[in-house]
Amino acid sequence: MKRRFFNSILTFAGLAVISASGSSANAKEYLNGITWEEPAVVTPGVINSDPPSDAVVLFSGDDLSQWKVNDSWKVVDGCMLTGKGKAVSIPKFGDCQLHIEWSAPTPAKGEGQGRGNSGVFLMDRYEIQVLDSYENKTYFDGQAGAIYKQTPPAVNATRPPGQWNTYDIFWTAPKFDEDGNLVSPAYITAMHNGILILNHFELKGDTPYNRPPKYNAHDSEGPISLQDHGNPVRFRNIWVREFTPAQGEQTRSPFIRDGKKETPIESSGDDQE
Question: Where does the record place the 3-keto-alpha-glucoside-1,2-lyase/3-keto-2-hydroxy-glucal hydratase domain (predicted)?
Answer without folding.
Answer: 55-241
